[in-house]
Design a protein that fits this description.
The complex is a heterodimer of chains A (245) and B (310).
Chain A: H1 2-18, H2 26-44, H3 47-50, H4 53-57, H5 60-79, H6 83-87, H7 93-126, H8 138-164, H9 169-193, H10 196-208, H11 211-236, H12 239-244
Helix pairs in contact in A: 1-7, 2-7, 5-7, 5-8, 5-9, 7-8, 8-9, 8-11
Chain B: E1 4-15, E2 18-24, E3 27-29, E4 33-37, H1 44-51, E5 59-64, H2 73-79, E6 80-83, H3 95-105, H4 110-123, H5 139-151, E7 157-161, H6 169-186, E8 189-194, H7 197-203, E9 206-211, E10 214-219, H8 221-228, E11 232-238, H9 242-249, E12 254-260, E13 263-268, H10 275-283, E14 287-294, H11 298-309
Parallel strand pairs in B: 4-8, 4-9, 6-7, 7-8
Antiparallel strand pairs in B: 1-2, 1-3, 1-5, 9-10, 11-13, 11-14, 12-13
Helix pairs in contact in B: 3-4, 8-11, 9-10
Classes of the chains: A mainly alpha (245), B alpha/beta (310).
Chain lengths: 245, 310
């Protein structure tokens, strides 16, 4: 199974490298890293490292970066007529699905990791502190990395599910963008639907809980959702359905 | 069962109200080139998908290399190679990478992958372009590469859907040689769909004709020709007088005689020697320059079968 996953991963990486100048390619990766790892830290100064919420807020570009990759995962193969040949090979279903998820997750998460490293270097070069090296507090660094990983896996697993059922990459991209919008708006809508008393109590609880604790609750919820969606995608991965779609 | 690479028994597949494959019963012996012939939309691609376990039949059963496509599709795909309706090549990868990817899928070692890439690309005349992205290639070159990919892991059974479509005559001929060699020397079974009936006649040990999902005939091209058409002799010459024609019509094995432009076409009940007919014509004053023994081609048989079914 590992060899099969690596085989598909190798192909996905090669394709990603070859399309380095197009959307979802290496150029996008570099632009996003330059934005989050150089431009924003230059503007923020030492606060970029000392106030880690800033770095946390800027985890969204990697999330956007994976959308095109994951939309392309199955819909792209279908659109370019390579899916049927791939399905006619000896590859197990799970190997195809997991390898495609893995490449998208690594693409997005490596963007976040690279941006954090670049941010530290940028801040220390542009705004050196007399006290020594400026680095993120370790607890916060772990939290940012965990939140971004859980969120990227969430986007990728939803994306794979959408891409499995889409005829073209564009259609998958549109559906995935709408799904992301719904996910972002859903908590606000849900909050608007509960009684004012409940809402106040809930917001009060969040305000009094340390931010890091709240974030770990969010991570736990995302991990549960990630597992559920990946299992669902695995169930939806049926060769006959993929071919007839 | 083991003498056959493929056996189907009343295999049927419906798509809503359309019956794509209708109680198909065929037997494909191991180690031959098997031609699966039929007009567009006759169910050839669906049959391949059913045999590879990519679709499930609604009724009937099949066995491919001793495995059941319904429950052992993974084993079938592990032992088969396929060139389907589309080439299925990754156009953003080089030719080398395309082959390397499929070699990795079939767990071919790195050294063997390298050797096989060299062997196949050289034999198909693609070696010099191995570093090019496949997207920049012509249709014929892509088709050749797709064939190489299907053969790469040395499968026991290969499904080839229109493999010579888009190939120039030289490349098609080279592929024919490769396929003949695969079946004859390496014992590989080749399941070939084609519209090119001359190709099927030249290559295939056995053919099946399918129309609207239904099997119309199966056998060797010679058997089908013999079964579907009466033998015919054509005489070229002069002096085919009414008396000579009447004498021929009276001959016991002759069913019909037609004359046109110095040619005399004689339909026979069964294959028989032509010497007595020549003697008869000469005795009636005819001068014969040429005698052609004619038999319907596979194309004639195919068209006749499809026409009868309509």
């Amino acid at each position: 199974m590992i060899t099969d996953i690596l085989a598909v991963f190798w192909k996905e990486w090669k394709e990603l490298y070859q399309q380095r100048t197009s959307r979802g390619g290496l150029m996008t990766w570099l632009i996003m890293v330059a934005l989050v790892g150089v431009f924003i830290p230059l503007q923020s100064g030492a606060a970029w490292v000392n106030t880690p919420v800033l770095a946390l807020v800027w985890i969204w570009p990697p999330l956007l970066g994976v959308v095109w990759i994951v939309a392309d995962s199955f819909a792209g193969e279908r659109e370019r007529h390579t899916l049927e040949t791939l399905l006619a090979s000896r590859l197990p279903d799970q190997a195809i699905l997991l390898a495609k998820l893995l490449i998208a997750v690594l693409y997005g998460w490596s963007m976040e990791v690279a941006a954090l490293i670049a941010g530290t270097i940028t801040v220390n070069l542009a705004h050196p502190a007399p006290t020594g090296l400026l680095i993120y507090p370790l607890g916060w660094l772990a939290t940012i990395l965990a939140v971004s990983l859980a969120a990227i896996v969430f986007i990728c697993s939803i994306g794979a599910l959408v891409s499995l059922r889409s005829a073209t990459v564009r259609s998958a991209y549109q559906k995935l963008s709408l799904t992301m919008l719904a996910v972002i708006l859903l908590p606000n809508l849900a909050l608007g639907m509960v009684s004012p008393g409940w809402r106040q109590a809930l917001l009060g609880r969040v305000a009094t809980t340390p931010v890091e604790t709240t974030l770990w609750v969010v991570i736990a919820v995302l991990v549960v959702l990630d597992v559920g969606i990946i299992l669902l995608a695995n169930q939806r991965f049926q060769r006959s359905r993929l071919i007839l779609d | 069962m083991n003498d056959h690479a493929i056996v189907t028994d009343a295999m049927t597949r419906d798509f809503k109200s359309v019956r794509a494959v209708n109680e198909l019963t065929i037997e494909v012996p191991r180690g031959i080139l098997f031609g699966f012939l039929g007009p567009n939309g006759s169910g050839k691609t669906t049959t391949i998908r059913l045999l590879l376990g990519l679709l499930e039949p609604n009724q009937g059963r099949a066995e491919v290399l001793g495995f059941n496509p319904k429950t052992q599709a993974d084993q079938i795909r592990a032992h088969c190679g396929a060139l389907l309706e589309h080439t299925g090549l990754y156009e953003r990868l080089t030719a080398e990478d395309n082959l390397d990817f499929y070699g990795r899928i079939w767990h071919v070692s790195a050294a063997e992958r390298q050797a096989r890439t060299l062997e196949l690309l050289k034999s198909l005349g693609l070696w010099d372009r191995r570093k090019d992205l496949v997207g920049s290639w012509s249709r014929g070159m892509k088709q050749k590469l797709a064939v190489a990919r299907a053969l790469f892991h040395r499968p026991e059974l290969i499904f080839l859907d229109e493999p010579t479509s888009g190939l120039d005559p030289v490349a098609a001929s080279a592929l024919h040689e490769t396929l003949i060699d695969l079946a004859a020397r390496q014992g590989v079974t080749v399941f070939l769909t084609t519209h090119n009936l001359a190709e099927a006649e030249k290559l295939c040990g056995q053919v099946a004709v399918i129309h609207q999902g239904k099997l119309l005939a199966q056998g060797s091209p010679t058997e089908l020709r013999a079964k579907m058409s009466s033998p015919r002799v054509e005489f070229v010459g002069r002096g085919f007088t009414p008396a000579a024609i009447e004498a021929l019509r009276g001959y016991p094995k002759v069913t019909d005689v037609a004359q046109s432009d110095g040619h005399l076409i004689v339909d026979l009940k069964e294959p028989s020697e032509t010497a007595p007919l020549v003697t008869l014509l000469v005795s009636k004053g005819a001068e014969i320059e040429e005698v052609r023994k004619d038999q319907a081609s596979l194309e004639d048989v195919f068209l006749k079968l499809v026409e009868e079914e309509k």
